[in-house]
């Protein structure tokens, strides 16, 4: 017998003995030689091309039985089983066709029974991401629903282990996005900082996360939540009410019985669930995050999440269909004002939300008409807070820039125009914006005044653009802009802009060039403000309003003549 054959027999006996009922069979991972033996057997099967099918058939029953025993031992582990199970899963993926083994149930069992308990182990987390990256193509082709189904569990890997796994996770991330996970994935990404806070709460209250299942916490919390709801119904107290030590750190963090907490800690995608941001638990965790120093883990996820959103939005614009993107935009609008209260994080996330929303409108202007109702609702909230004001500004710009959805959506454009009119008249009749208290300091008053002027400029521009695109709205636009021009409010930029737009409307050709649709469309073959120079030798170019575009009065300021730029006949 050769050395190679002796090694084969030795490793096969090792695995066979471990698969039987022996002293260490209750926890196979406790045998330090077992992992090495399984790896060597897999190597033998890959190297022996001539006899590989025979070798695989011989070792498969023992490997399969070992997998089942390892899963059964997870309830009382003495050491992590994740590494051993990943090696066995690799065997199933490599040789499943030879032994007719469907790896899908085994993969799902690994996620539900093992990774849900060991995601906090940095070694298991790194090995899992390496396994997914090595087998990415095979998993996406043979099991396309696997990663989208378990994206909440995979997000825990990056939430808990942070930047050291970021590169590996970014490679896996595109596999998490599918039609079924596209919408639920967005709020889960935005709420990654709160997920970190929730996991840290579990660790403080229940000990190490390694080896413990979040599902058991959910089950144990269910009776407590039921009692709390009954107490609220009969006594009027809320779930978040504490006792005499309500000021302690534990009671100021999120309650394990809170439904939002249970939603955050789930392991599988069960669809888009409404997250109640007004719940006592969420209010408590947000307040606690403001009053206490941030952990290193939380600081890392606050930095990572915007980069994950970049990749998510890139995939969305490249791969998602219009119906999914149209359904996502109202979610973006709702979440714009409900983010984890970190100043830099809110700025980075909101900037990405608005950029994606505007890019979606640019790609499909019809969205503006289809989403008329949520847009009108957001315009009505322009006074509530600075972030809602900024959202309303961007929506005003999009409505005007894309003609309220296009020429085929005249009814929607009219309703959007009426909402802009209402917003304009409210601003003219009142200076309220943001905080409505009577006693405010000068800084707040100046900020409010500046915000109102900016909002008015956006609104009158949108009104002028809509009327240019839909000419049946011109009479109403003249009335609205005339009121602004005659108002002579303190900020001259506002009434001067309204006056300029009224002047433009007297010259339809120039008005169309400056305020017309930004993209070529039916009836408008050219972009605004551009000239078809090839026609310059035979046609008069009459829509180059240099003095208007440069906001200059008097003669044009350019020092060139048309013959310098028009093609000459030869």
UniProtKB/TrEMBL annotation:
A Pfam family annotated for this UniProt entry: TPR_AP5Z1_C
Residue stretches making up the AP-5 complex subunit zeta-1 ARM repeats domain: 30-156
AP-5 complex subunit zeta-1 C-terminal TPR domain: residues covered: 291-520
Protein name: AP-5 complex subunit zeta-1
Taxon lineage: Eukaryota, Viridiplantae, Streptophyta, Embryophyta, Tracheophyta
